Amino acid sequence: MSGTNLFLILASGEINGIGYWLIDTTFNDTPTNDDKNLIECHRKELIGEESAEMILFAIFLNLNNINDDLKREGFVIDNPPKGISFSFPLNILENIFDFWLELYKDKNSWETCLGLLKIKKRNLLTSLISSDVLKGSAKEWAPRIEELHKYRPESNRKKKKINEPMWK
């Protein structure tokens, strides 16, 4: 990796009338001028290329975990033509973006939280939090990681389950 700096951004955009969020990197300090589909830039941080790559990995793993949970629970999340669904409120994305950006500054906490995020991919952290499995800083950070995964849509836009007839 080279030592170049770039901007880590959280922006909103629209393609053919469909809105989306974009978390990405750019070398342009005005990303809305760089991409005609972007409407507004909500977060923009100048950061090293390697750091941005690691932070993006954590952010997208966090979002994928939430998406997996929502699908498992039967929620329907729109798939925009690009980026992240507008089904996610901006404040949720800002919290996730800010958390991982800030946490990256502390190497020990970063490693601990990234490990917890990977565990969250496979298991709920709530049972580990209430047990004696987690120790030290992992036990302290686990509730915060779990909190980053709490988003559920306000509406009950769940897939309708069709009951199969008993006589089939």
- The residue-averaged pLDDT reads 89
Question: What is the end-to-end distance?
Answer: 59 Å
The proportion of residues forming helix, as a percent range, comes to: 40-55%
Strand order of the largest sheet: 3-1-2-4
Envelope shape = flat
SSE topology string? EEHEHEHHHH
Strand content: 15-25%
Secondary-structure-based class equals alpha+beta
Number of domains: 1
Q: Could you tell me the radius of gyration in angstroms?
A: 18 Å
Largest sheet: 4 strands, antiparallel
Low-confidence parts = none
Q: Work out the helix count.
A: 6
Count the E strands. 4
Kindly describe this structure.
With 168 residues, this protein is of the alpha+beta class. The protein has one domain (5-147). The protein is 45% helix and 20% strand. It contains six helices and four strands. The chain has helices at 31-34, 49-72, 90-103, 107-122, 125-130, 136-147; strands at residues 5-15, 18-26, 38-48, 84-85. Strands 3-1-2-4 form a four-stranded antiparallel beta sheet. A hairpin with a 2-residue loop joins strand 1 and strand 2 (18-26). The protein starts with a strand and ends in a 21-residue tail after the last helix. The mean pLDDT is 89.
